[in-house]
Amino acid sequence: MKLPEALVNFFGLGGIETLTSTHPLTLASFRSIAGIEAVVSPIFPAILVCEIVFLAWAYHRSPHRLYAVYKIPVLMYAFNWIIGLLINIDVFLWTQRHFTVLAPFTAPLHVVWFFYAYVVWELSHFVYHWTCHKVRLLWVLHSPHHAPKHMNLGVIFAAFFLQGTYANFVRTAICSILGVPMELLILCMVIDACWGSLIHFSEEAWPSGRSGCFLDSLLLMPSDHRVHHSSNPEYIDTNYCNALPIWDKLFGTLRREIPAIRPRYGLSRPQKPNDFTDTYFGEIGLLWRDVRNADTWKKRALLVVMPPGWGSTDH
Ligand SMILES: [Zn+2]
Ligand SMILES: [Zn+2]
């Protein structure tokens, strides 16, 4: 019996299904980008299920905590899934086609050029993520990701539905214009999606969030992303990269976790506890209120493009 499409998509089994529908599955099937994607895609959903089971065990004396931890991410996943059924905005192919023609060269498919591609990819992620924090209209898209008060793998589903569209546009445009071909771009996206999910491990499942070896200085670890999600003044607006901290180092935004300062998750404004409407629409509501109350058109325009908190007293 065929699994419902939504479940197949959620558990990342679409790639395996596509591979097996055309040819019998052999080792050679996995030596392609589609093959790598098919193998990698189910890894995160499987780890997520393990984390849910682990937290269910850890909170078995107070099951309401499990409900509180996953309520907002699950509601946002469901809400975005329904919107995705109604509106399907896929800018990836369009952007790739239109920006590749502007590239002065195309990187060859070689392992050395893969490293070039990944450094460029991380730059594009830095630009996308930094602008999400520094332009108030884009913060509207990104703030639901920062709203959860508990860090766990479900937080990756916490996002305004247009955030993915903006991310796809910026990252694809920058990579394409800097000569990253489609194959390397997809490979970078697969690795990024995987690592970018795993850095949301809960403190219960991975208390230190560090590997304890050389990887801690080479990669951004869950501990570093916890710092990014924190509203503590010492941590706010840091660690924009996803896997390689290279651009954070260069632009001075790299911040390691200080043992004495525990990350305090959530937004810096007062939030209604575990409230979906406030989490998803809170920032757009506040932006609309500030724009409406502004006394000049210049101030209205600036409120939209300046960083969160500009011209306002309650951020
Ligand atoms: Zn962020
Ligand atoms: Zn995150």
UniProtKB/TrEMBL annotation:
Q: For this UniProt record, give its keywords in alphabetical order, as a comma-separated list.
A: Lipid metabolism, Membrane, Oxidoreductase, Transmembrane, Transmembrane helix
InterPro entries referenced in this protein's UniProt entry, alphabetically: Fatty_acid_hydroxylase, Sterol_desaturase/TMEM195
Q: Where in the cell is it found?
A: Endomembrane system
Topology of the protein relative to the lipid bilayer: Multi-pass membrane protein
Is RNA-binding found in the keyword set? no
Q: Does the keyword Oxidoreductase apply?
A: yes
Domain Fatty acid hydroxylase span(s) in chain numbering: 115-253
Pfam (any one): FA_hydroxylase
Q: Which PANTHER family does this entry report, sorted A to Z?
A: ALKYLGLYCEROL MONOOXYGENASE, STEROL DESATURASE-RELATED PROTEIN
Q: This chain belongs to which protein, by name?
A: Sterol desaturase family protein
